[in-house]
Design a protein that fits this description.
265 residues; Arc Repressor Mutant, subunit A; 6-stranded mixed sheet; single chain; Rossmann fold
Length: 265
């Protein structure tokens, strides 16, 4: 049974929004709604313009007979800067300063509203790199990495610092920390396929040792790292174990007061 166009627009939009970066077949949609493919294409264009006006993302369409459409969460430049600036100000209050020049942000990372925005913002930085999997480490990196993977329509792999029997066979790599210690991280052998395109996402980077460990892990799987994304990168030390990365915020500490600013990415 055919439905009114308003209902059709809502239903198509919901299918796109709930499955970011997953293709929606225009041919199948036309058959399901009992309308022409041309009408579905017109609907997609209306939805795309509306989402672009809201500054939340865009819809891309494929060419050819089997071409589909998919939604890519991508905060507009103004919306992204406004949200990140507000977050930077929120995190810059002295009450959030922790010993060692760290900042408390766990409550925000585990808030789905903030975590989803940060994940979508991170995904938008690397969507053109076409990663096949997002790689992070436990624990605080998981929320942002999860929403990054969700936005990109790819699975999430989590490196752990303790091997669990429930994870099955695992690969372990040793990596040095800034303090001179050596840590070990593990990743299940079934999580990443050889030659996969991997995007590394981390919540915080000071010296970059954890991200460097994940680079080593990707190498063990013969995977290709297509980018490193970080929520907060510390300005010190200036020389890090990982030099090629992109961050959303940058942390500096002056006279005991943390100051976060929006990174120029």
């Amino acid at each position: 049974m055919r439905v009114k166009r308003t209902e059709r627009l809502i239903r198509i939009a919901s299918r796109l929004l709930l499955r970011p970066s997953r293709s929606l077949s225009l041919t199948e949609a036309a058959a399901g709604f009992k309308v022409s493919k041309t009408l579905i294409s017109d609907d997609i264009e209306i939805i795309s313009e509306a989402l672009a006006s809201e500054g939340v993302g865009s819809i891309a369409t494929g060419r050819g007979r089997s071409g589909g459409a998919y939604f890519m969460p991508e905060p507009s430049g103004d919306r992204r800067r406004h949200k990140l600036q507000g977050l930077a100000e929120l995190l810059s209050v002295p009450e959030r300063l922790l010993p060692g020049g760290l900042v408390y942000y766990t409550d925000l990372l585990f808030d789905p509203d903030w975590a989803s925005f940060l994940g979508f913002a991170t995904a938008s930085l690397f969507s053109e790199n076409k990663p096949a999997v997002v790689l992070t480490s436990e624990v605080k990196g998981i929320p942002v990495a999860f929403f990054t993977a969700y936005a990109l329509g790819v699975p999430l792999a989590v490196c752990r610092f303790r091997n669990r029997p429930s994870d099955g066979p695992a690969v372990g790599v040793h990596f040095p920390t800034a303090s001179g210690d050596v840590r070990t991280m593990y990743l299940g052998t079934r999580v990443i396929s050889p030659s996969s395109r991997v995007l590394i996402v981390d919540d915080f980077m000071r010296g970059g040792s954890t991200a460097a460990g994940m680079l080593l892990m990707a190498r063990e799987f013969d995977a290709s790292v297509v980018g490193v994304g970080v929520f907060i990168a510390s300005s010190e030390p200036a020389r890090k174990s990982v030099t090629d990365y992109r961050s959303l915020l940058e942390l500096s500490v002056s006279e005991g007061t943390p100051k976060l600013s929006v990174s120029e990415t």
